[in-house]
Task: structure prediction
Amino acid sequence: MFNEVTVQIRVPDVKEGQKWYETLLNRAPDFIPHEGFAEWELIPKCWLQVAEGTPANESGPIRLGVINIEEMRERLVTELKIEQFELCSREEVPVKWGTFSDPWGNRLGLFEYVSEDDKNERIEAVLRKKRV
Result:
């Protein structure tokens, strides 16, 4: 059984990377255990680590779930100056999604559940986990 998840992204300059990811995530890291490393708990027991090092080629994307993908995309284009990215959907898939890269080539993405019931169910599940 697994009880937590960590995903690591490497950047050549951790101070610059931390600043970029603070803007992406709209907050400071939750944990900086040592030089060259910062961590955010995205949802309970799911951590994003930004570490100093050589970015991995062709990895990802790591997709982050959001409530309103269009609003988030516009915020990222404006605040982080990323290129406008296409939003995709397919009738048989319950989400719409889009992919972009950080300045170091790490592939990231967003997704949003199309159904309001699905969105609400996911939000409630996260909130229940936070209370535990």
Observations:
- The CA atoms of residues 38 and 84 lie 27 Å apart.
- DSSP finds three helices and seven strands in the chain.
